[in-house]
Amino acid sequence: MKLKPGRILAALLTAALLIPALSGCGGKSGKIVVGSKDFTENKILAEMMAQLIESKTDLSVERKLNMNGTFVCFEALKKGEIDLYPEYTGTALTAQLKRPVDPDPDKVYRIVSEEFEKQFKITWLKPLGLNNTYAIAMPRKLAEENGIESISDLAKKPGQFTYGADHEFFNRQDGYNGLVKAYGLSFKGVSKMNMSLKYQAIGSGKMDVTDVFQTDGQLKAFDLKVLKDDKHFFPPYYGAPIVRDETLKKHPELEKALNSLGGKIGDETMRELNYRVDNKKESLESVAKDFLTKSGLI
Predict the structure, then answer these.
(1) Domain limits at 167?
(2) CA pair distance 57, 263, nearest whole angstrom
């Protein structure tokens, strides 16, 4: 049967349309899976990374945000269920490598970079700038009235203030007992509570001092002052993308795209971004896009 010229042209056009569609059926060859832990900051950072990849490469992105904690994300990364997620140097050092606390941020980054490559074939890209370490905070007005700028200043006023923290802080090597010993702190009362109640308690005046993460959005919401850790007790927790070596080998363009975020997010900036999501109820997507756009990254 001889086809008419019009039908031949139609057949050729149909084939041309099918070729790109069929080429996209090869599994994850052109897709990157970005994961995150289950707290606001980590989800914001992961969303930024996803948007950067979408903007700066030809790769598609699948998001697996809110994957629970460190262990779940790390196991998923090692197994290839995700390609990358935001991690923190202090967490990697103590939780994943089981190393003792070290206050030197450059040394910690070097250790985790070298050991993750050696043990897990995972690459640490450039740190983002933020240090989500533990810190000690109190209401700004109370701190100013008492001339308290640092934790050493707090130690000079023994028995004057009440202290409260989440249960985990009392069970960590970089937690309450080590802090009290390092600074010689003394409080007139100490309380343990669930993390979700901590900010409400200090905001309502039920306690004066608490542990926080340095980039918490709630610091702004409750107008708390972070006291300077002048003895460098708390370890560094610098955030950075960590990526499977196998993924980088297949898609080397990822490194340049993600490293464009290196050093761009300071602690104050991260606090503001967290505040916008947690307290102003803006979406992760809009907050991430707004930051990337204003920073000239997309």
Answers:
(1) 134-227
(2) 21
Look up residue 38 and give its two tokens: 């289950």
Which residues are CB-neighbours of 83 under 8 A, at least 6 positions away? 32, 33, 34, 77, 243, 244, 247
Domain contains 64: yes
**Same domain membership, residue 285 and residue 152:** no
pLDDT in tens, the chain (298 residues): 454 555 544 444 444 444 443 333 333 459 999 999 988 999 999 999 999 999 999 999 999 998 988 899 999 999 999 999 999 999 899 889 989 888 899 999 999 999 999 999 999 999 999 999 989 999 999 999 999 999 999 999 999 999 999 887 888 777 899 999 999 999 999 999 887 788 999 999 999 999 998 999 999 899 999 999 999 898 899 999 999 999 999 999 999 999 999 999 999 999 999 999 999 999 999 999 999 999 999 9
| Nearest Cα residue to 93 out of 72, 74, 75, 111 | 111
Residue 263: alpha-carbon gap to chain centroid: 13
Read off the CATH number of the domain in which 81 is found: 3.40.190.10
Please state, in angstroms and as integers, the Cα–Cα distance from residue 38 to each residue in 71, 87, 121, 145, 284, following that order. 11, 12, 24, 37, 13
Same domain, 200 and 57: no
Residues with Cβ < 8 Å from 109, sequence gap 6 or more? 89, 124, 127, 238, 240
Model confidence, pTM: 0.79
Q: Which of 175, 206, 227 is the last residue of a domain?
A: 227
